[in-house]
Structures are given as C-alpha cells and as structure tokens.
Amino acid sequence: MPTQTEELTAEGLRVSEQFKKAREEVKKVIVGQEDLLERLLLGLLGRGHLLLEGLPGLAKTLTIQTLSNVLGVSFSRIQFTPDLLPADLLGTRIYMPAKGDFKTQKGPIFANLVLADEINRAPAKVQSALLEAMQEHQVTIGPDTFKLEEPFFVMATQNPIEHEGTYPLPEAQVDRFFMKVEVDYPGFDDEKEIITRMTEGAVLKTGEVLSAQAILKAQKFVDGIYVSETLKEYIVHLVTATRNPAKYQLEKLVPLIEYGASPRASIGLTVAAKARAFLDGRGYATPDDVKALAADVMRHRLILTYEGEAQNLSADDVISQILGKVPVP
Questions:
Q1: 111 lies in the same domain as 160
Q2: What whole-number distance in Å separates Cα of residue 281 and Cα of residue 295?
Q3: Mean pLDDT by 10 residues, the chain (329 residues)
Q4: Collapsed DSSP state (helix, strand, coil) of residue 141
C-alpha cells in the first residue's frame, strides 16, 4: 500500500505530463474555460460522465470536440429533440431483402466521447436509453448486446433558461452523473481574445497528443492514487452533513434540505480527488482536492425544500456552508 509521501512512478508521471500537454493543446482553440476543461479530463480519468449547464455560445460543443481530436479518440454529437427515439441514439436492426436477413445498424452512441446536446429536450425513453448505456457501458439492439468501446465518456448539456418543450431529468437519473458543471460567461480579456480568434480568419490547429490506450493506462494509474483513511473520513463527513446537518452544528440548514447526497457523492468525491491528484502529478489525494471539487460532485445530488428555494438558496450555498463547518484534516 503506497503512503502519502510517495509520488507517482516514472511511467505515471510521463502519462500525467501527456495530459498536461493535451490541456495546453486544447487551449490553442479554447479561450478560458479552464475549470470546464479540467472537469472533462477528471471525468474521463474517473470513468464518470458530466452534465453541463450553461447558456448557448459558451464553447461547450467546441471544447469536447477539440478535446476528442487532441486525445485521438472518436467523437459523436447527438442533438436531442422531442421527436428523438431510442433507436436514433443506440441503433436499430434493418431488414435486408436481398439477403432475407437483418443487419444491425449501430447508432451514434458508439464513440469514445459522446456529446448529448440539450439532453432535457428528449423524452424519458431516450434519456433512459442514454443513462443505461452510461451505466452499463453496453447497448442491446434486438437480440444482440454490444459492448461500448473504451474509454467511453458522455458529456450531456442542458440550457438553464428554457423550460418550454423540455423534459427535466428526474433527480434519481441526475444522480448518475459524476459531476454537474456550471459553465459561466468568459472574462473581459478572454472575450476579447475570442473575438480576435474567431473573426480574423486564423486557422486553429491542434495536434494529437494521446490515444485511447494511453487514457486507459491513465485510468489505472488513477485507481492506484493513495487516499488516506483520514481523507476518506473527511469525505464521508461532508456527505453526511448534507443528510444530517444538525450533527455538524448546522441547524439552520435542517429545514432547507429535503434530501441529502447519496453514497454516489462519497464515491465521486474520492475518485475526483484521485483524478485531480494524478493531473497534478501526485500519487496521493489531499483535502484541497476534495474541497475544490465538492460543489461539482454534490450540487446535483442535493434537493432543497420549498423553504430553501423560497429563500433563493442554491445547492452551492449549502455546500459552501458545510465546507466551512466540517473540520479539515
């Protein structure tokens, strides 16, 4: 068992450096959005999937498409609409009259990086089909079951300002996402740079830095990142505080939280901290890793009461109060 004083092996450091190069390569095209890019890599390394919430025009699609080019993996984009069917996503069986037999036509889900754009525009059947593929990493078409190619990573987006004609994801399904990332407007200088890059005809080129095999190898290195017993206890305390805030002298939160975070939050925080440590070239996770990612891992796993919503309280406000109260090891 490694100790907190040990660093990554030479091979682990080499792969970690490759991911740093990949980030720099993506930044040749994407201006700002550092947090988004980091969370995408953390999801990929932690074998989790991301739900992005942000207004149109914030480079969500461009970011993951550019990332797929840099990583050297296949990419597909699915625009979710109210008339979409599960077969449009997964694939279907087509009858071939000449042969008198059926042929399986695989859908766009068969890619390494999948962008599910505006997931809340599709009905429940389609959402469920996607979430099943995310969970099982396999798809059943007719009598046949097909394994999805690894690595398999889904980034789903939803628009926070439009609600007409949408099908909000049930809380139990949202919980299956590794992180929910909120994408904000770029800063002033970043937006000036975006104007320059997008209006002056500059050719934005990126190189292929990684491969599917390198990503799978990196995932194994992340599995081996050391998490101390003390840090595990800290993670469990943070998650437990969302369910029983009075136990942590947060009585004022009791009437504001209807349901706290599930055990998936504890698992997600641990995996996210390990992935962040790997990106930083460390062989061990720290409380700072946990604190930096707590909101992304837990914000979609908290359900506030009507009173909490009436006070204009957000899940992030609750998480911030919990982080300020639970002792850091």
A1: yes
A2: 23
A3: 59 89 86 86 93 82 87 90 89 79 84 90 85 86 86 88 70 85 87 81 75 92 94 96 92 91 94 95 94 94 90 91 92
A4: strand
Q: Rounded to 5 degrees, what are φ and ψ at 85? A: -115, 155
Q: For residue 50, give the 3-state DSSP assignment.
A: strand
Pair 159, 247 in one domain: no
Q: In 3-state terms, what secondary structure has residue 52?
A: strand
Contact of 33 with 41, CB cutoff 8 Å: no
Q: What's the pLDDT at 3?
A: 43
Instruction: With CA atoms as reference, report the closest residue to 156 among 187, 126, 194.
Output: 126
Q: Is residue 264 part of a domain?
A: yes
The dihedrals phi and psi of 89, each to the nearest 5 degrees, come to -95, -50
Asked if residue 189 and residue 41 are part of one domain, the reply reads: yes
Specify the DSSP element, H or E, that contains 321: helix 315-325
- Do 155 and 205 fall within a single domain? yes
> Where is the domain boundary, 160, 184, 216?
216
The H-or-E segment that residue 219 falls in is helix 212-223
Q: Which amino acid is at 112?
A: N
User: Which stretch of DSSP H or E encloses residue 269?
Assistant: helix 263-279
Tell me which residue has tokens 């002033």. Answer: 188
Residues 230 and 134 in one domain: no
CATH code for the domain in which residue 129 is found: 3.40.50.300
pTM of the predicted protein model: 0.88
Length of the chain: 329
**In total, how many domains does the chain have?**
2
Closest CA to 110 of 54, 148, 154, 68: 148
Q: Which domain holds residue 192?
A: 10-216
Domain ends where: 216, 243, 273? Answer: 216
Report how far residue 321's alpha carbon sits from residue 309's, in angstroms, rounded to the nearest whole number. Answer: 16
* Cα–Cα distance, 322 to 329 (Å, whole number): 14
Give 200's contacts (C-beta < 8 A, 6+ positions apart).
none
| 112 and 242 housed in the same domain | no
